[in-house]
Amino acid sequence: MLHGAIPFVDVWDRKPLGLFIIYAFFHLFAPYQLWAYQLGALLSVCLTAIVVMKMARCVASATGALFAALLYVAWLDLAGGQGGQSPVFYNLLVGCAMLNIVRLIRAETLTQAEIIKRGSMAMLLFGLSLQIKYTTVFEGCFAGLFLGYILKRHRISWPDTGRDLTLFATIALLPTVVVGGTYWLCGYGSQWWFANIISIFYRTKEPPAILAHNFRNIALLIGPLLLNIVLQMFLCRNRTAVQRKCAFFFNAWSVCAVIGVFLIGEWFNHYAIPAFLPLSIASATLFTSSVGRVWLMVLLAAGTVAGQVMVLENQKRYGNARTFHNIMDVISKEKGCLFIYNGSAIFYDFLPPCRLTDHPFPGHFHSVVENRATGMDPATEIRKVLRQNPTYIMAYAPPAADENEAVRAILYDRIRQAYTEAYRERQGKGFLVLYRLDAPAGREQP
User: Any keyword Membrane (predicted)?
Assistant: First the structure.
């Protein structure tokens, strides 16, 4: 983007424009973009934790609210949140949106104008969050319905309620409509529509074994926090009317977020991160019980330790700074374009831009789930890439369970003809491998 590429046109991915903009901003700090995005993510997590404390204060003491915030932070590491996943950023917007609704719940007296004001602010924040990840639509719909409940509880007429809810929905959709409309006016409407709305429905399912494994992992991540809602019914009986109202809202929000996680499918660990926000807030209620306090302390300690173990495990499985520098050292010996068939796309960030393809993300090639779901035929596209003779190719051996075998066969046929292994490192159950083009003559670099 910083070199003039247009998302969905020159660089294709299924992410909304807002996420492109966030990471383009971090790249302004090159060559320190990694520090920039980590500091940006850290700031977002800290601010989100403060929002968690503000909401949790409705149902617990200041100490209980602090435990809820720490629980949210600890659980991020369990789901890979330390890598700057998109929920780390949009959870802040979602939290601020829900904080507006919590203030409506806590208010002793409310006017229709105040509900419209707070509701509009909440839905605008949800609209902005949609431009970071569309999956916030589940929580946005819940927020809209709950605002309708608040309107009716304060005896607002059905026609006025319908008008206000229409206003809320319009505000929530406004950022997406503006982005889509801008693309349409620039002549790229069909590209935006396919990438943002249609392409997700062309994806196929992961193999059953992978789905079962992912489902088990995500259930283990969410289960302990979801259990806290059940424990409330037995341990937290002496609550004020406001505490009960807020607890009901947090519990309902949690259930909605969890349902959204499971409806999305595939169930990668980081898909659970949006649910951690309401679940951690709802957990604060347990701090009003002595047994609940002990349980939360144990849960926080276990989550913190397990999270750090997970971070170390991820470094072994996916590489660390040593891996990065080793590969960059190899590439620096002979300048040229890198094509990442399978591996971390982070290496692209530290090399001069090479437009081998408008689909730079590895999963669009190697994953059978994405076959014909990204607007290109991966077999045809990889032949086009290989005709340009990239100096380096990064791949993973052996093939993954969800590998697109036809595309891999094309790639390795070319590797056997013209490439030599330049670097290999064990990662998890396999190896990350870097191949270098043999003959310097006749290379055609873009």
Answer: yes
